[in-house]
């Protein structure tokens, strides 16, 4: 059993999504004590955003700049970690109605034709099925579905990769006062307990 733990929040110890993702990992380790856990902190060590150099390299060009070579290798490593994992836990706070740019940069390195998806005559086909995704979602407010470009995007992109087993542990309204924050975190902890059942 391999578990990949991805965190993206920039707020460090104050982060609700980091707190929840850590508690999800703790719960999974109790259930799978011999699981191998790989941690990727995209706030502490971000993967660069895609550029024309990345696209040219994907088309067969040989990059010359050492920075680009290293960044392409980092992206390949991220893809390999993702493909090898049985369970992926993603700490995903909502920033300005969407996911953090660090998380989007990581996802861009996963969206590789022939690795996580392919196009067929019948349309796109996901190639990364068979794994479980657990998203630790945090939001400062409470948002209508029309304003959600965070969880809806994550469900869509992981679904595009062929993953159907996607769970979301959500704490929302955490910026609406101490009482609302405690209540939201406690509700999320209940959802974590439910995952372990």
Automatic annotation (TrEMBL):
This is FMN dependent NADH:quinone oxidoreductase. Belongs to the azoreductase type 1 family. It is an enzyme of class 1 (oxidoreductase). Its cofactor is FMN. Transmembrane segments: none annotated. Binds 1 FMN per subunit. Gene3D superfamilies: 3.40.50.360. FMN binds at residues 9, 15-17, 94-97, 138-141. It catalyses: 2 a quinone + NADH + H(+) = 2 a 1,4-benzosemiquinone + NAD(+); N,N-dimethyl-1,4-phenylenediamine + anthranilate + 2 NAD(+) = 2-(4-dimethylaminophenyl)diazenylbenzoate + 2 NADH + 2 H(+). Homodimer. The keyword Acyltransferase does not apply. It comes from Aquibaculum arenosum.
């Amino acid at each position: 059993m391999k578990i990949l733990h991805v965190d993206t929040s920039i707020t460090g110890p104050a982060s609700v999504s980091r707190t929840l993702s850590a508690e999800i990992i703790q719960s999974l380790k109790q259930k799978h004590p011999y699981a191998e856990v790989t941690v990727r902190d995209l706030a502490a060590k971000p993967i660069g955003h895609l550029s024309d150099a990345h696209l040219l390299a994907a088309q067969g060009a040989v990059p010359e700049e050492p920075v680009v070579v290293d960044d392409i290798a980092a992206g390949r490593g991220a893809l390999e970690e993702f493909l090898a994992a049985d369970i992926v836990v993603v700490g995903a706070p909502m920033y300005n109605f969407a996911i953090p740019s660090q998380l989007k940069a990581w996802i861009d390195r996963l969206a590789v034709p022939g690795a996580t998806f392919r196009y067929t005559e019948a349309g796109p086909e996901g190639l990364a099925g068979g794994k479980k995704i657990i998203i630790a979602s945090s939001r400062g407010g409470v948002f209508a579905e029309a304003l959600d470009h965070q969880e809806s995007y994550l469900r869509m992109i992981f679904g595009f990769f062929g993953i159907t087993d996607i769970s979301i542990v959500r704490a929302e309204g955490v910026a609406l006062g101490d009482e609302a924050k405690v209540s939201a975190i406690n509700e999320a902890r209940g959802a974590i307990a439910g995952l372990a059942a």
